[in-house]
Amino acid sequence: MSNDFVKLDHVSYKYEDAPDFAVKDVSFTVEKGEWLAIVGHNGSGKSTIAKLLNGLLFPTDGMVKIGHFKLGEKTIWDIRKQVGMVFQNPDNQFVGATVQDDVAFGLENHGVPHELMVERVDRALDEVGMQKYALHEPSRLSGGQKQRVAIAGVLALQPDVIILDEATSMLDPRGRAEVMETIRVMREREAITVISITHDLDEVVLADRVIVMNQGTRHLEGTPKEIFEQAQEMRRIGLGVPFITSLQEKLELAGIPLTDRSLMEGALMEQLWTLHLNK
């Protein structure tokens, strides 16, 4: 039996008055509990896919399915109950006077009873390590903290899928690291399906699988390791590779025989140390 929870089947989308399709005949599935990263340069179609997955757009052709529901006018709210989105700018997501008020906002809109609401807010803030900031004003938080609160607001709704739509692009390196660590821990605890739409290739390393979009089509697909082994092709379509991949390329050009192109710094250091000891 298939474990696919998200499915795009020959999906295309064309914006009104646009000369060409933003997404062209794209098909893929995502298993429950999987972390899929979708990468591509501006205009590649990746953000359009994010909107299609959350029902902010409806496909021009093809089918989008989340869980048991095919996306359509009659199922849009069923799908949105299952899918939570964290957007690019955390400041645009806050509506509450305090952190706990903001996390509770979505629950209030869903008519969740007060006692259950308090329990979910506390748990969500604890999940993202922001419990001690519950009574703080969101505007006084750092960028990374704001995004963690935004994630808590999504978690409190208990979705099956979380979509990160360029959620770390406006953060400094420390903020990005905070948010990615939060997502990693949350996924391990809750077995939530994560779909990250990003151009940050260092973020992609954490995913189980990667889809590379180019000119509206699914250009490459594989594990992060398989994708970044195609460094030349990635650069050809206007994308880079993580620093560790570039470093390994330079080491090999310098005549250092690496046995494995790992994406983990620790594994690379272990290889280099072993080579040093065996000299």
Structural overview:
With 279 residues, the chain is of the alpha/beta class. It has eleven helices and ten strands. It has a domain at 1-86 and 161-168 and 195-223: Rossmann fold. Strands 6-7-8-3-9-10 form a six-stranded mixed sheet, sandwiched between helices. Strand 7, helix 6 and strand 8 form a beta-alpha-beta unit. Helix 3 packs across helix 4 (114-127), helix 3 packs parallel to helix 5 and helix 5 runs parallel beside helix 6. This is Cobalt transporter ATP-binding subunit. Its main location: membrane.
Number of strands: 10
Measured by DSSP, the beta-strand proportion falls in 15-25%
* SSE arrangement, N to C: EEEHEEHEHHHEHEHEEHHHH
Number of contiguous helices:
11
Low-confidence parts:
none
**Strand arrangement across the biggest beta sheet:** 6-7-8-3-9-10
Largest sheet: 6 strands, mixed
Structural class: alpha/beta
What coarse outline follows from CA principal-axis ratios?
globular
Give a quick set of tags describing it.
single chain, 279 residues, alpha/beta, Rossmann fold, six-stranded mixed beta sheet, four-stranded antiparallel beta sheet, 11 helices, 10 strands, 40% helix, globular, ABC_transpr_CbiO/EcfA_su, ATP-binding, ABC_transporter-like_CS
Summarize the structure.
The protein has 279 residues and is an alpha/beta fold. Helix content is 40%, strand content 21%. It has a domain at 1-86 and 161-168 and 195-223: Rossmann fold (3-Layer(aba) Sandwich).
